[in-house]
Amino acid sequence: MVKVFIYPATSLILSDMVARFGHEPLGSAIGIRERIQTPGFESPPLQITPEEPKKGLKWAAVEVPSGVRGRMAVYGPLIEAAEAAIIVRNPDFAFGCMGCARTNELVLFHLRNRGFPVLELDYPTSDDEGAAFVAAIREFLEGLPKEASQ
Questions:
Q1: Which residue range is the domain that position 31 belongs to?
Q2: Are 4 and 86 in contact (CB under 8 A)?
Q3: Structural domain includes residue 105
Q4: Could you read off the pLDDT of 57-94 as tens digits, one per residue?
Q5: For the chain, what is the domain count?
């Protein structure tokens, strides 16, 4: 099973597809779940500590806005754990929305420069494109090893 980062990270459709083909999806639900289930957070509903933007410095420069650093504190560890990625360009908002353009650019930069397999697709706009979209994802996921490399 390979850990596959999904982009947009909020896409339940991509997450489900990755899981159905026997791999572990890495998306925002994983990072957020850790924060919601961890006792001791003192700033609901934000569910971050004052340390989160500092942790984000590992993936973003100090000049970057704290909101981007805070988001990277969620996405950065997931990107580091990933062994592959699926990127959907120009998705419909209902497919999954990342919400912050600067964070999106930084996440995509890190994904494209990690040296692991990356599938980049445009969001489908017709039934035929949708069928090709699903087929490309299936082919990519089936081509990944069932056992993760260590």
A1: 3-143
A2: yes
A3: yes
A4: 888 888 888 788 888 888 898 999 999 999 999 887 66
A5: 1
